[in-house]
Structure formats: structure tokens, C-alpha cells
Specification:
It is a single chain. This protein is globular. The strands form 4 sheets. It has a 5-stranded parallel sheet with strand order 4-1-12-13-14, with helices on both faces. A 4-stranded antiparallel sheet has the order 8-9-11-10. It is built from 9 helices and 14 strands. Helices cover 35% and strands 26% of the residues. The longest helix is centred in the C-terminal third of the chain and has 18 residues. By secondary structure, the chain is an alpha/beta fold. This is HAD family hydrolase. It comes from Streptomyces prasinosporus.
Length: 270
């Protein structure tokens, strides 16, 4: 039976320059590999050691990138190792098979959203009406599934985020603050549901997962074993669960540690 490894990407396996957390002396900093370029500029990195570990992982397990990114944003990433057969984008809204969205899966997701939560248009209207232009830089809608704001964190009123979370909860949505982005995502739109579908299709009897944000909590809880880094929303909340290991590493070295844990566990299972 194959082992399925489902991992969040941003601030879990790959890191922007601002999120690298290179706190060691310069001479001891790890060599970095750029894995994403946007508008001709390098955007995301992992250590060269992590790149080798991910290549080995892709050869020994069913590795499934599992991200809140849109399909277009995901396709900018050039991960080392074998091209994944499956990838999960838009927080579970799209299940890619060899790079193409599975239409049946997407239709099932849309049906659940229509039945179980307030429409996206209502959430958009609320964000536009209540978010302060002083700290909002961009309003965005992702794949016609969820919304997010790009903000200036130092100007953001934290109380507003709490108020938004309460408002969204009553309408079947959840709110997540990650770096400079505030996400409003329908509760039925989950990474875990898409991962279960991949497990069903591949026949995997062991699922491993990693993630750093509130939107990764359902993914971690659905896995047989999971890891979270020492940074991010989950670490800030001291969130854990019986099968989840909280790692001390922060920044890009946490990504390297997570891949070591994945590979060690896959090899033990085999």
C-alpha cells in the first residue's frame, strides 16, 4: 500500500525571503534553492538539503502538494523531484490530476458550498464595506470560491479580525490571518476532504501531513500523523492534537525538518 504525504506549501515547505528566518550567523546560513519566480523575480525558496529530501520523498511516497493557492499561483512553483500526479489547490476546491482540474470533484465542492454556507457575494460585500482602506492594499477573490485581503499588518486593527471571525462563523465561513493576508474561506471548503479523495483513489492506508495555519488544522486532524512548524497561526495558538508533533524549528529550516520527518516515517512504514 502506498503512503500518502499531503503538505501545505507556503511557510511549511517553501518560504518567501521575508519568512526564511535566517537567524544563524551569515557564514552558517543554508544554501537556498529558488522554487518560484513571479514577474521575473525570485519569490519562494527551500534549502538545497530540503530539495534533495523532497526528491527522495517523491520517489518513495504519493506526495500531494496541498495549498490554498489558486491553480495559477500553484503552477508558478517548480518543486524538485518527480512531478506530483495529484495536487490540491484553492483549499480543496480543485483537485489536479496530472495538472488538470478534476471536473467531477469541483462540481461536488460547489454543490456542498451552495447547500452549507452563505454565498461568496455576501462575504465580499461585507469585506468591502467594513475593511478600512487605511490598511487594505488589495481585495481578491480566488477561483470564485473564497476571498482574501492583502493588508499592512502594522496598521491592521486586530479587533477587526476578531469581529470578522465571529461574523463569518455565523455564516458557515472561517477566517485566517497569514502574514499580510486575511482569508475568508467557506467551512465546507477543506483540504482534508480532497486528501481523503486522493487516498481513496490511490489506495493509501497511511496519510502524513504538515501545515502551519488555521486552514491546515483539518488537514492535520485527518492524517494518521502530522507535523507543524514552530511558527505560524497554529504555533501562535499552541495548537496540537494527539497525532500531531509540534516542531521547534522556525522558518526555512522547519521545512527541511518536516521533510526529514516525512521521509523517515515513510521508510519505516515500508
Amino acid at each position: 500500500m502506498p503512503v500518502l504525504v499531503a503538505s501545505d506549501l507556503d511557510r511549511t515547505l517553501i518560504y518567501s525571503a521575508a519568512a526564511l528566518a535566517l537567524t544563524m550567523p551569515d557564514a552558517r546560513a543554508p544554501r537556498l534553492l529558488c522554487v518560484e519566480v513571479h514577474e521575473s523575480r525570485p519569490l519562494s525558496y527551500m534549502t538545497e538539503t530540503a530539495a534533495g529530501l523532497l526528491t527522495d520523498l517523491g520517489d518513495t511516497a504519493v506526495f500531494v502538494p496541498t495549498t490554498t493557492r489558486t491553480r495559477k499561483q500553484y503552477q508558478r512553483i517548480n518543486l524538485p523531484g518527480p512531478a506530483p500526479t495529484y495536487a490540491i489547490c484553492a483549499n480543496g476546491g480543485h483537485l489536479l490530476v496530472d495538472g488538470v482540474s478534476d471536473r467531477d470533484w469541483h462540481a461536488r465542492v460547489l454543490a456542498r458550498l451552495a447547500d452549507e454556507c452563505a454565498p461568496l457575494s455576501e462575504v465580499q460585500e461585507h469585506l468591502l464595506r467594513t475593511a478600512d482602506p487605511v490598511w487594505v492594499r488589495k481585495h481578491r477573490v480566488a477561483e470564485d470560491l473564497f476571498a482574501y485581503l492583502v493588508v499592512e499588518r502594522e496598521l491592521l486593527r486586530e479587533e477587526w479580525v476578531k469581529e470578522l471571525a465571529v461574523w463569518a462563523e455565523n455564516r458557515g465561513w472561517t477566517v485566517s490571518l497569514q502574514g499580510r493576508k486575511i482569508y475568508a474561506v467557506p467551512k465546507p471548503l477543506t483540504k482534508s476532504a480532497a486528501v481523503r479523495e486522493v487516498a481513496r483513489r490511490t489506495g493509501a492506508d497511511l496519510t502524513l501531513a504538515a501545515g502551519d495555519s488555521l486552514l491546515d488544522a483539518d488537514l492535520l486532524l485527518a492524517a494518521d500523523q502530522g507535523w507543524r512548524p514552530g511558527h505560524g497561526e497554529l504555533a501562535d495558538a499552541d495548537w496540537t492534537a494527539p497525532a500531531i508533533r509540534a516542531l521547534p524549528e522556525r522558518g526555512v529550516l522547519a521545512g527541511e525538518r518536516i521533510l526529514r520527518e516525512f521521509l523517515r516515517t515513510v521508510r519505516s512504514a515500508r
